[in-house]
Here is the input.
Amino acid sequence: MELPNIYEMTDYRRLIIVPIVLILISLYFIPQIPKGIDFKGGILISLQTNSSISEEQIQGSLTGIGVKDVVLSSYTHPLGTTIEIEIEQNQLLAEAEKVRIPFSDSYDQVSELEIEKTRYESEIERNSSTTSQYQPKLDEVNAKLSQKRDEMDKYALTILSNCGQVLGRKIDLPAGSAKDLRDEVDQVYLEATENYNARILDALRGSVQFSSYSFANVMPSLSEYFISKVLSVIAISTLLVVIVVFAVFRTFVPSIAVLSGAFADVVIAMGAMGLFGIPLTLSSFAALLMLIGFSLDTDMLLTLRVIKRTEGTAKARAYDAMKTGVTMSSATILSFSVLLALALITHIATYYQIAAVAICGLFGDIIATWFFNAVIVLWYAENRERKK
Here is the structure.
């Protein structure tokens, strides 16, 4: 069926109202996007079982030991059933893990100061005539060492206190060197983590029989690292896109049109994530980056045909580009619909997140490109033709 030329049917400038309203609605839902375990931290437990399962019983067993925010999913395959359980990280262990970073930094500083102290003491002992030269430096190092060791002890006490609460016993600050303290902190933290994981497994064994299991701990520091890397990727990719787009068109308005189309596409997709409760994970983030590529593809197709070509009118060239672009987007939507159907059948969360984000983004791309970007490009092309 032949698509009507929407740019000639009416005042095409009115079409921009649709994507603007959709973007405003999306901005409302974006703060409601739930964070996945990759970005908020937590524990992902995978169980392999051949027996029947009761999700209510599994959730009840975990709630019984104080675990909150239990997210459970399962899918069946030829080898049995896989159960994936996402739970929040133990608050005490999460706080202890955060403190371990400044604790390690303090240990490194203490170690360097101890080496420096030993060097000055050796110089004074080897040659007494250098006492006046090195004694002030030694006193300064001793003062810094005392300060850093107190700081290190404070961090260690917090870690040992939190881990002691998990283990159900009081753990005092050990005496000895900085290395002895570091070894003790590492040992106690490992023991507390294993104890907490063992309690979770014991609770699960009472509600489901499983043949194998795996634990994936995502601590807050790791999730913060993921977020920082995500922001870096966004910044670098945006910079490269800006450079390429301006290099191709070398004029302001068409370049801004292409970039604004990609921006609108991502905003609409993220709004759909907030509306339908699709979590922000590394998988869904990868789908968002993929959408930028799809959006730039259709935006460049439109802008190049309208700006660079001269045959026919600008509206006719935009209409011709729309037929090609909508066909491309429809074929891609169909492909991801198959992936979404497979995800719903197998209950594989990664497939679902990628397919759902891609489908929402591609529908958004159709509206953003042909109702938003096209209006800007047509307005620019017609103004340029009138000036000529």
